[in-house]
## 1
Amino acid sequence: MVLDLTVLTSGKKEKLEFEFEWTFEDLGFLRQHSPIDSGLFHAKGQVLKISEEFVLQLDYSGSLNFICERCLDSLEYASSGKVYKALSTQEDEEEEDVVIYSDHQLNLVEVVEDDILMNLPIQIVCKQTCKGICRTCGKNFNEGPCTCNTETIDSRLESLKNFFNNDEEV
Ligand SMILES: [Zn+2]
Ligand SMILES: [Zn+2]
């Protein structure tokens, strides 16, 4: 959704309200995670002229489907937020609370993309207690334990214990 700011930049109006719905078709902005697809998003807000500045207020909510980074199951992530930012045409303004627009056009979907990214957890998991999968057999530990390599780990721990015990004795 690209908002045409001409009514504001031309001085015809001091307030421009908007409301729109969309689904993300390009999930490239989430590339450090594993997105599957996007649910419906809804955004509502306004651009205000305050003194000589433009200010954007935007509320959004929606959902995204991801692959859990621990167990590889799919999960639905509810995403919502409030954005309050000043607008600027100065590309070199790298302040966090400033959104750049050009040619009187403001890309609102990009604003939401940035906000979603900023609020995503470092690791997206189906639940905080997700136990992950076995790296050997692929068994989802949330469904129960596997049998394949408990012995190997135990024997490795055993030799490690012996190593330290021996060390102490010397
Ligand atoms: Zn999981
Ligand atoms: Zn296993």
## 2
Amino acid sequence: MQYFPVRRQRRSVDLPEKPKQASGDQKPSQMNNKLNNFSTSILAIVGLIASAASVQASAGRAPANSSNGPDRPNVVLFLIDDLGWADLGLTGSTFYETPNVDALAAEGVFFSNAYAANPVCSPTRASILTGKYPSRIRLTNHSGYGGAHGPGHQLKPPQVVGNMPPEDVTLAEALQAAGYATAHVGKWHLQAHHGKGRTHFPEANGFDVNVAGGKKGQPAAYYFPYTHEKYPQNNITDLDDGTEGDYLTDALTDKAIGFIEAQADSDQPFFLNMWYYTVHTPIQPRTDKLDKYRKKAAAMGLNATMREALPEHQSFSHAHQDNAAYACMVESMDENVGRIIDSLKRLEIEDDTIVIFCSDNGGLSTGSGLMSPTSSGPLRAGKAWIYEGGIRVPLIVKLPGKVKAGLTLEEPVITTDLYPTILELARLPLQPQQHVDGVSLQPLLSGQQDTLEREAIYFHYPHYHHINTMGPAGAVRAGDYKLVEVFETGKVELYNLRDDLGETNDLAASMPELAAKLTKMLHDWRDHSGAVMTTENPDYKAENDWRSNP
Ligand SMILES: [Ca+2]
């Protein structure tokens, strides 16, 4: 049963309005306008793209190769590292250009209220492959790392399991057992940093093929040979067939297309787990794109003197998307998503392939100054925060004929849902004993239901991170409301996200009954789901607090 009434969620995107011309010179005070215009803009943009796509489709195309059979679609799961929810044209960015991802949304369903299960990398990755909350498998931070701690930190974070638990039956293992050829390409980050060998690499978790996946959370470099003498632990060593000038995002796509081509004529369906390293640091663009975005930034008035920062606790959020190098990385990501989708079309397997697009956490938009590469506006804060900027991510699901095209759904969903959703779209039996924290989105995708019968979704991040001055926190999203609990103080904040996407108006004092109810739900969930809390640090002295002595 739903505790809170949820309005009808499904909307047609075929609206007559034209997208608003958003100003690149976005002042903090204009955030609310952008926020209010968001729904109209996004729906109109998607509608325009959908119209174009339907014209193209009606022009006729050879029937899809059905060698995989209609009941066994291929699966391509794009996961972009650190891509912010607001980093797409689809979600209102006027500086970045993402025509391929925007078009993908027009051909499938866009979830505007989708969440990463955690505000940093490894836990969300594990949530996708296990269908469990990161707290349930005690992997609530980067693999094997409990986060910053010491006498300057008021709370002691819990120990974090370093590896994704081997006893879990991963999504890849489930598909492999059902006869799928499985390939992981790109960032993995699910073996403990201190672990030896390749004991918890993709090949130990259901993948026949592993290209470039290992312990590292970022590449040493984006240019061949993808190494750096100062960061040898981040070297990518299994792409040594490249040549000088090769760019990692392009090279990973080459490998992925090679896998797709090899599988296209086979009777065996495939699962491509396409987990790009981009747009994570180091911010290294393809230099041939730089000039375009430098000129664009100048034309939009986005230069250093215009830069502004929004205060966020004892640090700042970047107010504008204005980093030309980051914009190039976003464009390379989009181009390569497009290349893979084009290969599905060329091989005539597009209609037999589920395509999912998601990010593992919010954009890198906070810090002590203006060095963070993106801005999450209109969302609050960014990566490593429990505010929307840290956990809300773009999610698109496309499967022609089975998934409605061109819909935006507002139902809150979370990365734990992908496991059962993929199984159900592939007409495979659900494994409820495994994906215990996920719900299949198939009834939403097919249009059978407008909402899920889910009370709430939960977040648990009991860690410190140098770009998050709020510290350890948790949250619950139920209907339109979200409650945030700050662990250092026990203070709770309550927001109505339908009216206040930017989490600016704390309703905890004016709606005490709802705040108490959600607080109890969050605490009960922690008690029942194995979530481990922070503990008081007896060595802490306020005068030594890390935020005062960065
Ligand atoms: Ca990440």
